[in-house]
Amino acid sequence: MLLFICLSVLNGILIRAADAQSHNIDGTFLVDARVNGSPAILLLDTGAEHSLLDREFAERLGLHPVGNADILRPYSSDKTEVMLVTDLDTLSIHSRNLRVLTDDLTANSRALGVHIDGVVGNDFLRRFTVTFDYSAGSVTFDHSFGTHHGLPIKLRSVGNRYFAYLNFGGVPLNFLLDTGTNFSALSQSGWAKLNQNKTIVSLIDGVRSPGTSVTSKLVCIQQVTIGHTSYRNLPMRVQPPTSVGFFADPGVDGLLGSDFLRQFIVVLDLANNSLYLNPDHSFKADQDRFSTIGIQFAKDATGAFAVMAVWSPTPASDAGFKVGDEVLSVNGSSTTGMTQDDLSKELHGEPGRRLQMEIRSGWDLRTVDLAIRNLICQ
User: Do domains 19-132 and 291-374 have the same CATH topology?
Assistant: First the structure.
């Protein structure tokens, strides 16, 4: 079911350009909003066809179903309820009578380390020219459409999803534009089309994606060309096989996420099937992104940091880390009171830097001594 969003005039004037109060969380944009007068944090996600609200948040607002719709997730599909939002405000943009889907966003919130109340999808985003400035941490909505600067990329639309063609060493692949993920990925379809002997430099197993317990691989792609510009040594996930969800579609070869997009000031003109990439001279590559020990973690129900995935081969797998282990301290500093970002910074850094970590495995406490290593795309 398509969502129809009616933009209304605020105080008699529709503001031409609006800078939403936004937060750049590791490459994904969250905006402050008010939904029917209640404060909300919404994820801007070009990978989502339709805008949606977290089911629990919709219940707290007292929203009632006005219909049903199909929802397509990466690894599943389902029926869900459609709710009517009478008012949505994000600074100077005021929208009325939005039909939104509902879903459980708990896994997404845990992965980001920030609670999110909903997702702004392409049904909303395509009504504006949207500019993402990752370095500044700002997003701008402009209601005018016209000439834009930057490397022009023509998008292909299928329903309310938008795809860009990427060339992998002579192999063209169809990638879904997805600002809602900070980790670009290959589907099994895309993986099968690549000549692995020429394209893959290194491989890590055990990477976990939100919303599934099945793990994927992490690979280093030697060269990717988009438009007429080539980029080297790009880490990407290889998603596990699935028979349901949009990753089951053989026409979806992968996701193009913000880990690639954040090196640009991105201008998105979905109404005209266009994307413009302007090099961001303020961008500084995260040299330590994969200089780490090889675990993924999230806060559990007790507030402790639990290991969600152990990559292999890595220092963590060599040291015997297991899913479910709790990280209690790093180099003598307790993780109590740390944010997800705080702990991430502790576990990344210069290759060779040693870490002493206190771990709880079930009822057992142990201290692990290990060193950070550059895991991929060295």
Answer: no
